[in-house]
Structures are given as structure tokens and as C-alpha cells.
Amino acid sequence: MLIDDQSAVIAALSEQDAYGFKPLHKIIVKETNISDVFLTGEKAYKLKRGVKYPYVDYSTPEKRLAACRRELEICERFAPGLCFGVEEVVSDKKGRIFLRSACSDEKAEVVDYVLVMQEFEENMLFENMVDRGDLDRFEMMDTAEKIFDLHQKAEVIMSRNPVDIIRGRIYENNAMIRCFVPDIFDEEDVDALEAEQLEALESYRELLLKRQADGKIRWCHGDLTLRNLAMWNGQVIPFNPIEFYDDLTQIDTMYDFAFLLVEMESKGQRRLASILFNHYMALSQDWEGVPVLPLFLSCRAAVNAYVFAQRSSEIKDKHESMLMANRAFEQLVIAKRFLERQKPVLVACGGLSGSGKSRIARESAPFIGNPPGAVIVRDDVLRKNMLNAGLEENLDTAEYAPEMEDKVFKEVCAKCRYILSSGQSVMADALFHKPEQRRAIEALAREMNVDFKGLWVDAPLEVRIDRVTQRKRNPSDVKTEEELRKQLDIDVGPITWEQIDTSGDRMATLTRVRTLLADKI
Question: H helices within 433-505, ranges in order?
């Protein structure tokens, strides 16, 4: 709740005079549930709101100063150079409020503090880019790489019990949601969600403890949302990291990542979420994070539910308040839906290099199984993982010897088996050029008692040559016509899977594939 009245400060910082600007200089104000940000065209000034919740206390100027300093320190880790410093907000002898740098009264009294940051162009904020349709595959890959890099460099936390961390999130989230019963939420719905989350938590107890032992509990960003990501100087920048509550930042890396997946799902961007997720998985190899992802997604959606409900209670316009309340209720529904498990599916997509099988796998995965879609298990990625090589690092031809090929295929099967056992669907993307490999993956589906669909993808040689020579950011080492022609002597044997010619219109091809998979989705 709001404890400290900052209305005079907010009103002053919303006007040009507080910064020493000319009368026509435009100031834009952005509000969140715990901060107000004043955009001036070059710099952004972030004012912590005088609120006190179970998870944050900004109720006095002194506490807000400490929070600003803490955020400044953390920002250097996530986005060096983004934050300039902390500035005092002062009141002169006439009671007028300014930034210290714009006030001529040297004896002006300090009344508050702001964090001074680099302002982003509005069109470069991910929240706006996704609404305009300006985010696509490569931006999602960039984002996955940035988050993975942050997680890799983050401090490992061994002192905190991961089960207790998530249990605390469940109880606290739902306690906050109950503050808006019955105005927005029904108590029975909240009770049911909490019971399901706690049941899921107990089932993952041992896995969460193992993840802690494996170093997966780290000092994370804590609020990886679309509104806290931007393109800056050609790079993806996460900003506004949480500085006020260790329970929100000393967490499982997959929990940190889950917030962004929830946002993409909420905005109907399953395709982008799938690309983001699968590229992060290719980098992190965090297969043991797959079983716990539904619980993490549910918890993150619950956070959105109470944040939107809180915002609704503060909005004066009745129509806008009702729209925000509807968003809050939708998030509660989504939180419960994430825990609903449907029977997983195994889809195998095979074909020689340049056939288009990886594109078919990438574009079909979002529509298979539970959010964020099927996990893509790709032979080219696993080979690089097994050899501790970068995804785009060219391997020696010796790494494609028959012995290594067998090891890679066994790893493909092992990963498919593990992910299917967790309840998530799988898209297996591999050559599958040997009949015995195709039989093996079909047998795996029978073993796991899941539905199976096999797709054999092909295209004319000239099309395949053009594709491999144009490849960008692709883990396959087949990137020249010479390398491709080495596969011409491969006898793939009789093909019993659905055969897909990808040389025609892309959308028509994808539509046919989705039609073939319709009974599996």
C-alpha cells in the first residue's frame, strides 16, 4: 500500500521546470506499481514510490535512497553504463521542487531521490516492439544469448533452500492475490491454484534440491519482462533489475527465465516464446529445468495477477481500471492452465542437409504440447554440446565419424526419453537417414506410450544447395555445396513417414505440416 505521499514530487517532476528545461520541453511519465519514471528525451529519472508491500519497502526517503544506490550497483552488472547515478530531489525556500542540478537554492531541502538512467527510444523497448510485430527469430536468439550469458556469469547461491524459495513465492503471491477477493478474484479459484502449486512443488522437491547442488540457484535479474528489455546500441539490454528483495533474485535460473515466457504467452506470441526457449536450451543444456518449468510459469503468472490487480485499484479511470482488472483475472486463469498437463507427443523430423527440416521443426514446435511448445532436440546442437563447442563453431570432420554419429543419435534418444517422461512434448530434429534410426525413434514413442508422427522433409538439390550456402547462425556444419554433395550417396532406404516437399511456398508448406499434426497438437 501507499505509505508516503509523493504527490507534490510527482507533480513537479512531471513538469519542465524541475529539470531546468524550456517551457515546451515534453516530459513523459511511465507508472508501475512501485516506481514512476520520467522521460525527458535524453535521460530517464526513476522515482521509487512510497509503498510498502510484503516484498518491498520504499516507505521513507532514506529507504528509497538506499534502493536507488543498490539498483545503481546492480545495473553495472546487467547493463554497464546504463545508469548515471542518483540525484537528490529538493524543495527550495519557496516550496518549489527541482532536481538538485536544476535548483539555484544551495540550501534547498532534500525531499526525495531519483535514479538517473539512459533513456531508450520508445520504439526500442521490447514491450512496444512485440506489439508492433518488430521482434522476430534473430532478436529472440539475441535475447536468449544475453540471458544465458547473464546466468552463466551470475553468482551461485548455495545458502538458500530452493524448495523454501518457491514455497515462499507461492504463499506470498497468493496472499497478495487474496487482497483482491472478491472484487477481482474468487477465493475458491485462489485456493485451488495454491493447492495445485504446492502439490507440484512437493513432486519436484528432489529435483529442485539437485538443481541447487548443480549450481542452478543464482543471483538473477528477478524481473525479466518485455518492459525491462530494450535494444540499445544494437544489443539486447535488460534493465530495472530487482534490488529490494533477495527472495526474488536469488532464484533458479529457469524461474528467472520463466517470466519472459509468461509474457510472450500472454501476448499470444507462442512462436517467439518457443524460439526464445529452444535457443536458450541449446545454449544452457538445462534439460533438468524442463520438468519444473510449468510450476515456474504458473508462479510467474500469479505475480502478474496481483501486480495487475494492484494497478487496477490505483487507476482512477473506471474503464481503464476494469481493463486492468480483466488482465489480472486472465493471469490467474493462465497460472492455473500452466499446471494442466496433456499427454505429450513425439514428432520426428528427418531429412538431409538443406531439406528444410530444422525450419519445419522450429515453426511447428510452438503448436505442439504445453507452453512454450515442444522442446526441440536437434542432433547438430547435441553434437556441439557433447564436444563443449560453440553452436556455430565448425567441427573437424572426425567428429562426424560413424562412432560419433552413433553417440549423437543415442543422446538424441536419451534427451527425448527424459523430456517426454517430464510430460513435455518433443520435436526430434535429426538426419534420421538410416532406417534403423527411424525404427528406433518410433520404438521410443511406443516405450513412452506417447503419440508419434514422423516427417521426412526433402527439396530438389539446387534448392538445398542454395539454402546451405545462405545459412546464418546455424549449428549445422554443412554450409557449402561441396559438403552437401557428400550426402548424395546416402541410401536412406524406404521412407514410411509423411513426405514433405519444402521447395514451394513456405506458408503453404507449414500449413500442410500443421494439418498433418492436427490430431497430435
Answer: 435-448, 461-469, 481-485
